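Sanity check

After download, print the first record. It should look like this:
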Amino acid sequence: MKKKPGEKIMIDDTRGTVEICSNEMLDWNSRAIPVARSKGGVKAVSHPYDNLIRTGFTAWPPPEIVQKLYKSRQSRAFEGKDLEIATSGLGYYCDLQSLHSEDAITWTVFGTIARAPQDILEPWLRDLFRLIDLPGAKTDNAEISLWRRIPHPDTLVSGGPEIDMGITTSNTVILCEAKWLSGIGAAQGKAKDKDQIQLRGEFLTKYGTVIFPDRPHKVVLGISLLPNAFKDTMPEGVSFRTTTWQHLGALPSHPLVDELARYSEWKTVNSKMTRKVNIY
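Expected structure tokens:
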């Protein structure tokens, strides 16, 4: 039976039995937060900050998050009380509020370690490079960037592909494409005959040696909730690797590994999926 707005629900939690309203849910730290449901059944929190790990950040929000707080056209997916909840946090709906948001999981795994000192970042990168089988990649002079754009590989104009995560070290450059449940974007490029993975590989093939002359290891990395979510369309000379958010979140050297595990499970369980996905 469908619950009426505001109706109390009793649920079992690690703290015991918890009473929440039908328009609330428990987050990964067992905190009750408002939640809206789209007409298609996708859950969205009322404020984007409720979809992001903020542990360890005293100056919030960081610039990477601010640039993602744009108004989304997806507010049309909500109506009635759900629209009211979805627009109550910021005064408008933002894509970061959706539990299907790829940017939210990108921040939660990569953004939380991007500002870590080298003595924390390097061990995590060693674990990552073992996970994706990059034995020759070094971890010194490491830097992680989020949501930077590169020149378009077909035209070299500004505003080319947005790189979800960029990882550079003394001898390695990795361009990452993040997905949750969505597929790879096709019909890309000047002639609309390429996909997202191919464009990133072509940028490294055409211009990687000039732009990154001291980094012989050039890699495109695809990350998704779903295994086998990517097709290898990589041009010669660039390595292609894939992994899942579950495996990334379980890397023991991440300083927030326990919270990442809770967040990943929470996001997976509360995502609307057409088939079962093993969390771990």
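If your output differs, re-run the checksum step. Summary of this record's structure: The CA atoms of residues 11 and 17 lie 6 Å apart.
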